[in-house]
Amino acid sequence: MFPEYRELISRLKGHDIHFTRLFDKHNDLDQRIKNMEAQIQPSTQPEIETLKKEKLLLKDQLYVILKKANEKGA
Questions:
Q1: 25-57 pLDDT per residue, tens
Q2: pTM
Q3: I want to staple 35 with a disulfide (CB 3.0 to 4.6 A). Which of 41, 63, 64, 72 is the partner?
């Protein structure tokens, strides 16, 4: 996710608790979705779609933070 911001992500994860929480939640959702799609974890298609939407919202929030931090030279 966001390879162009890899270094900035590392810095933010060490200094921004809010960013770290969002980032970790995004990764947790990503793994849950993968497990559901692989039928490792029971689910329904509507559940998967709901989680995908939540994951996308988190990704959008992370991107906003990354753009602002990049503009500030964080």
A1: 999 999 999 999 999 999 999 999 999 999 999
A2: 0.90
A3: 41
